[in-house]
Amino acid sequence: MTEQQHLTHIDEKGDVRMVDVSEKDITKRVAVAEGFISMHPDTLALIVEGKAAKGDVLACARVAGVMAAKQTSTLIPMCHPLNITKAKVECEPVHAGEREDGRVGIHVTTTTGVTGKTGIEMEALTAASVACLTIYDMCKAVDRGMEIMDVRLLLKDGGKTGLWTREEQGE
């Protein structure tokens, strides 16, 4: 962090606050996030084959992610309520040999958008997290050892700072 950067949700006295965005420009903003839930190969097979006891795991995870994006400001205290214009959740099975670490599971990618005065990153991250949590909930009866990992922002665009990508950061 440079000298000019600061935590925007902390005021001069060190108290948390909601950032005043009233003077910011309205711009189109988008964010993309991801998460991964690793699981036993047999659990992945149940999901892919549509044999999970609670129903269509991936459809439920997609809906839960969209719902979570829309509720982010009720979950994260200093987030502004946003009139979200886009919330997309994709869930892709990852089989043995497809990841460097050898894990199998579901890779979740979320894309959120808004035309407004503040960013949409938290909504994308919340959607990815809740989609992974939903997969866990729907499959925990057969696999309590699942792990949620790699929840992170991949891209944000719009606003004063413009485009940011994880690739540009060398990650």
UniProtKB/TrEMBL annotation:
Catalytic activity of the protein: (8S)-3',8-cyclo-7,8-dihydroguanosine 5'-triphosphate = cyclic pyranopterin phosphate + diphosphate
Enzyme superclass (EC): lyase
Residue span, Molybdopterin cofactor biosynthesis C (MoaC) domain: 18-159
GO biological process: Mo-molybdopterin cofactor biosynthetic process
Domain of life: Bacteria
Pfam families recorded: MoaC
EC number: 4.6.1.17
InterPro entries (alphabetical): MoaC, MoaC_bact/euk, MoaC_sf, MoCo_biosynth_MoaA/MoaC, Mopterin_CF_biosynth-C_dom
Binding site for substrate: M78, C79, H80, M122, E123
Active-site residues, Swiss-Prot/TrEMBL: D137
Keyword Kinase attributed: no
A GO molecular function held by the record: cyclic pyranopterin monophosphate synthase activity
Keywords of this entry: Lyase, Molybdenum cofactor biosynthesis
Pathway(s): Cofactor biosynthesis; molybdopterin biosynthesis
Subunit-level organization: Homohexamer; trimer of dimers.
HAMAP family reported for this sequence: MoaC_B
Similarity-based family: Belongs to the MoaC family.
Function: Catalyzes the conversion of (8S)-3',8-cyclo-7,8-dihydroguanosine 5'-triphosphate to cyclic pyranopterin monophosphate (cPMP).
Name of the protein described by the UniProt record: Cyclic pyranopterin monophosphate synthase
Taxonomic source organism: Senegalimassilia anaerobia
Lineage, highest ranks first: Bacteria, Bacillati, Actinomycetota, Coriobacteriia, Coriobacteriales
